[in-house]
Design goal:
The protein is mainly α. The chain is built from 5 helices and no strands. This is DUF4939 domain-containing protein.
């Protein structure tokens, strides 16, 4: 549990750092957090896709990095779902397409 808390804290710090850097550069900002509201999912996924288009592959070189970033943006019911994905060692953590499909199946 302490390891998970440390990882979440590190991801949140990285998220805040990225938000500030993006706002300074005037580029696309980090997507808003997603709480699981069905009507917000298409916009959230579009913002995530746009963000990854703007950020070089050096920042998120693997699907696992991209999924971890998205997991850090999930709150409320979606955040609880994220905890289950992380703790359950789900294989969708390593595949962005499968992860988005599971997120859409659950909240879309």
């Amino acid at each position: 549990m302490a390891g998970l808390d440390a990882r979440v804290a590190a991801l949140e710090l990285e998220l805040e750092t990225l938000k500030k850097a993006q706002q300074i550069k005037g580029q696309v900002i980090v997507p808003e957090r997603f709480d699981g509201a069905r009507e917000k999912l298409p916009t959230f996924l579009a913002q995530v896709d746009l963000y990854f288009l703007q950020i070089s592959d050096l920042s998120f070189p693997t699907d696992t990095n991209k999924v971890a970033f998205i997991l850090s943006l999930l709150t409320g019911p979606a955040g609880l779902w994220a905890v289950n994905v992380i703790r359950g060692n789900s294989p969708i953590k390593n595949n962005l397409v499968d992860f988005k499909a599971a997120l859409t199946e659950t909240f879309g």
